Amino acid sequence: METLKKTNLFWDVDQDGLDPDKHGIFIVKRILEKGDIDDIGWAMKSYGREFVMDVFQKNIGKFDVKSNNFWCLYFNLDKSQCILKQSTKKQSPFWQR
Prior knowledge:
mainly alpha
């Protein structure tokens, strides 16, 4: 099945309206989050490895932990780039024991 027609990837958008040129970043982000090996191959062939890696690097921290770790290893990125930083500096008194 063609990647852009997969309902498990693009259930929330009009698939006929997806333009690979205009919506490349959105498509690659979705493939990095929920795609399978065929989808990854399609993205690499369609957009190139550098573009896919760039989309990942600009969105580190927006993926779930498993995906984030996998893509950091796949693209051979420095661990310090891939570590998710805590959003708050100080713990709220509500959570203290």
